[in-house]
Write a structure and sequence with these properties.
Elements lengths: L11 H11 L4 E5 L3 E2 L39 H4 L2 H9 L2 E4 L6 E6 L2 H10 L4 E4 L4 E6 L5 E5 L2 E4 L5 E2 L13 H4 L28 H16 L5 H16 L7 H13 L4 H14 L3
Antiparallel strand pairs: 1-2, 1-3, 3-9, 4-6, 4-8, 5-6, 7-8
Amino acid sequence: MTQPTPIRRVPRHLHTALDLAARGVPVLPLRAGKVPFGNCPTCRDNVCGGRPNMKTPGPCQCPRPCHGWAAATVNPAVIDSPAWATVWRQAEAVAFCPGEAGVTVVDLDHADAITWARRTLPTTRTVPTTRGEHWIYQGAMQSANAVRPGIDIKSTMSYARWLGPGTGTMTTLPDVVRALVVKKPSPVLPVSVPVQTGGGECRHRTPAYLERGIAMAEQRIREATSSIHTAVYRTFLAVLSTHGRCGCLTDAHAARLFAAAQTKGESPRHCTDAWTNARTALGM
C-alpha cells in the first residue's frame, strides 16, 4: 500500500515572506526583540567583507541571513532554503527593506508623534503598530533615527517590520519628509586620540571596502536598541581590528563613528574611552 506523502508544514512567517517576495518586496526574518538574526561565525564582525546593498553582490556569499538588512531578498529559493529553515522556525516576525521596495516608512512611535504627522505630513497609507503608526510613502530616501521625538525614517539601508498592507492610498514621498534628515552641523567634538598606526600592509581590496566597513559600523551603532556602551565598544573594536593597523583609518573615519555613537546618547568622553580601550585591547 502506498504511503501518503507527508504534508509539509510551512512556518507562518515563511509563508508571509514568500508572499511578499513574490510581489517584489525584499524580506528577512526577525528574532525576538524585532532585530535581525546575528551573523554566523564566518561573517561575524563582517570579516567576510559584508554586503554593500541588495543590487550589487558583495564579497560575502553566505547562504544564511547574515548582515542585517542586507540579507533581505526576493529570491524564493533563498528564502525557503535549508540554510534559512532554522531561523524561520525561531523567527518572531518578518521584516522588509523599504528602500529596496521603493518606499519610505515614517515610524511614529507614540501619540504625540502621530498628532504631529497629522498636522504636518500629507496623508498616505497607514499601518498600525504596537505603540503608534507607520506612514508609508512612495519613494526612497536616506534612513535616520530620531529625526524628531518618537519619529524614525526607515528607507535605504534599513528594515521595518511587516505589519500588514495598511489602509489608505500611498502618496509620493514629500519634501517635508526628506527635510527631516537634514540636520544642522553636529556639535560632535573632534577625535582626541590618534587612529593611525601605519607601517602595516593594507589589506583593503578597494577604497570602497573601507568605506563600506565604516558605513556598516555606523549603521550597527544607530540600530543598537540596548547596551549602547557595549555595542559602541564592540563596533569600535571590530573596525580597528580590520582597518586600524595599516594607516588607512583616519580621524575623519573615527569622527563618523563618534558622531553615530553620540546620536545614541554617548558622550564625547565615553566615545574616547571606548576607542582607547579598543586600541589597548588590540595592542595598538
